[in-house]
TrEMBL record:
Miscellaneous comment text of the record: The active site is a redox-active disulfide bond.
Coarse class of the protein's main subcellular location: cytoplasm
Cofactor: FAD
GO molecular function, one term: dihydrolipoyl dehydrogenase (NADH) activity
InterPro entries (alphabetical): Class-I_Pyr_Nuc-Dis_Oxidored, FAD/NAD-bd_sf, FAD/NAD-binding_dom, FAD/NAD-linked_Rdtase_dimer_sf, Lipoamide_DH, Pyr_nuc-diS_OxRdtase, Pyr_nucl-diS_OxRdtase_dimer, Pyr_OxRdtase_I_AS
UniProt keyword annotations, A-Z: Cytoplasm, Disulfide bond, FAD, Flavoprotein, NAD, Oxidoreductase, Redox-active center
Transmembrane segments: none
Gene: lpdA
Location of the protein in the cell: Cytoplasm
Textual note on the cofactor: Binds 1 FAD per subunit.
Reaction catalysis annotation: N(6)-[(R)-dihydrolipoyl]-L-lysyl-[protein] + NAD(+) = N(6)-[(R)-lipoyl]-L-lysyl-[protein] + NADH + H(+)
Protein name, UniProt field: Dihydrolipoyl dehydrogenase
Assembly description: Homodimer.
Native source organism of the sequence: Marinobacter lacisalsi
Keyword presence, Cytoplasm: yes
């Protein structure tokens, strides 16, 4: 087989493997390079961070821990009585690992079905669109390509005051591998990853303290929604300390001693385990040869234009290594766009319609602009909200926390933001994404018939509420 390809993708995460499959479907001779190796050192592992140590395993643990917590605290009120309820951590981890193996194995099958050549080793871009692949034994081989797609992903940021030791001080991967429930768990960072992982272990019995340096909670989220979410998290027992800067973490006698400042005092607290979740950085180490010609921006991301082109003709980059949110679905959409563009088509990613989700309980999800953004931009807008507490399906499901919030343009009524905190927010937000993708007005949703009883009726009511016409809640009186 020739070592020249139409497309070589470096990285087999959600951006890379999707780009490779789409390119092959479009008739391009495609290879995908991935260095991830199975624990026995024998097999290539596809799927990247998301499938192996990120999105998928964390959601498996979130789902299991949510069911456990509900059985513990929510079933009795519904007439379901249980005795001697226990959590088997080993079995839970087996379940998580089984899901991961099934999905990563599925990608290998999709590569074969679509004719993608999987190359095992570390990929490095050389000059003239050549890719050097080095295997685990140090042997290198150079491949040529008409187009190269860089999709090497990201990795957790390690901070000097709390270096990872793989046991007591861990990153997000380590937090998915605990073999028992820590009695006291510390989390540095109240972002998406910190809240999700903290939630898992809090539900299973840990006393969880979250230290967040920012003064505001979830600053990227609409603050009405964020404050509602914070209220629920605190009620669940998450001790979230805002405006708190950690200065030192030290392991002594199998405990982690954490020093922090809260603007007034200096404090010390001890934990059995400490999760550091302060963000991720692009994985570009040893990815680019000095003469490759690809430029990085001031934060270390690969510079690309709106269509994911780098400064080198025929070289593209997608996902966590480029600007924008570090989201698996954003990476996949970019991968598809790039493959289509290589094949001569002209699609674009609508970056205004990329949903964000925090898979806590209640879930938090949003797309578009927040009230705070619109205020700062001086845009005139109107708002409709509806609480799940007034939704019959939410009541039946014993899950009434949260609300749907729709923000529309004051003059045109076009939906500018769609925000949900509550049950199934990750699914409900898709309705907002579709509406915004088609340029819908709030009235369009208000005139749509929603099935009863469903959680989605709260979307209908929020849309009606934008112009003060909600049926199942009191509306604000219109100013005369």
């Amino acid at each position: 087989m020739s070592d020249k390809y139409d497309v070589i993708v470096i990285g087999a995460g959600p951006g890379g493997y999707v780009a490779a499959i789409k390119a092959a479907q479009l008739g391009l001779k495609t290879a995908c390079v991935e260095s991830w190796t199975s624990s026995d050192g024998k097999q290539q592992v596809l799927g990247g961070t998301c499938l192996n140590i990120g999105c998928i395993p964390s959601k498996a643990l979130l789902e299991i821990s949510h069911k456990y917590e509900e059985a513990q605290h929510g079933y009795a009120d519904q007439g379901i009585e249980l005795k001697d309820l226990n959590i088997n951590i080993g079995k839970m981890m087996e379940r998580k690992d089984g899901i991961v193996q099934q999905l990563t194995g599925g990608i290998a099958g999709l590569f074969k079905t679509n004719g993608v050549t999987a190359i095992h080793g570390h990929g490095k871009l050389l000059a003239n669109r050549q890719v050097e692949v080095t295997d685990k034994d140090g042997n290198s081989k150079v491949y040529e390509a008409e187009n190269v797609i860089l999709a090497s992903g990201s990795k957790p940021i390690e901070i000097p005051p709390a270096p990872f030791d793989g046991d007591h001080i861990v990153d997000s991967e380590g937090a998915l591998e605990f073999d028992q429930v820590p009695k006291r768990l510390g989390v540095i960072g109240a972002g998406v990853i910190g809240l999700e992982l903290g939630s898992v272990w809090a539900r299973l019995g840990s006393e969880v303290t979250v230290l967040e340096a920012m003064d505001s909670f979830l600053p990227a989220v609409d603050q009405q929604v964020a404050k509602d979410a914070l209220k629920h998290f605190k009620k669940q027992g998450l001790d979230i300390k805002l405006g708190t800067r950690m200065t030192k973490a030290e392991v002594k006698r199998k405990l982690v001693y954490v020093d922090y400042e809260d603007g007034k005092d200096k404090e010390q607290v001890k934990f059995d385990k400490l999760i550091v979740a302060v963000g991720r950085r692009p994985n570009t180490e040893n990815l680019l040869a000095a003469d490759a010609g690809v430029n990085l921006d001031e934060r270390g991301f690969i510079y690309v234009d709106d269509n994911c082109k780098t400064d080198v003709p025929g070289v593209w980059a997608v996902g966590d290594v480029v600007r924008g949110p570090m989201l698996a679905h954003k990476a996949s959409e970019e991968g598809i766009m790039v493959a289509e563009r290589i094949a001569g088509h002209k699609p674009q990613v609508n970056y205004d319609c990329i949903p964000n989700v925090i898979y806590t309980s209640p879930e938090v999800a949003w797309v578009g602009k927040t009230e705070e953004q619109l205020k700062s931009e001086g845009e005139a807008y109107k708002v409709g909200t509806f609480p799940f507490a007034a939704n019959g399906r939410a009541m039946a499901a014993n899950s009434t926390g949260g609300m749907v919030k729709i923000i529309a343009d004051e003059k045109t009524d076009r939906i500018l933001g769609f925000h949900v905190v509550g049950p199934q927010a990750s699914e409900i937000v898709a309705q907002g994404v579709i509406a915004m993708e088609f340029g819908s007005s709030a009235e369009d949703l208000a005139l749509t018939c929603f099935a009863h009883p469903t959680l989605s009726e709260s979307v209908h009511e929020a849309a009606l509420g934008v112009d003060g016409g909600a049926i199942h809640k009191a509306n604000r009186r219109k100013k005369k």
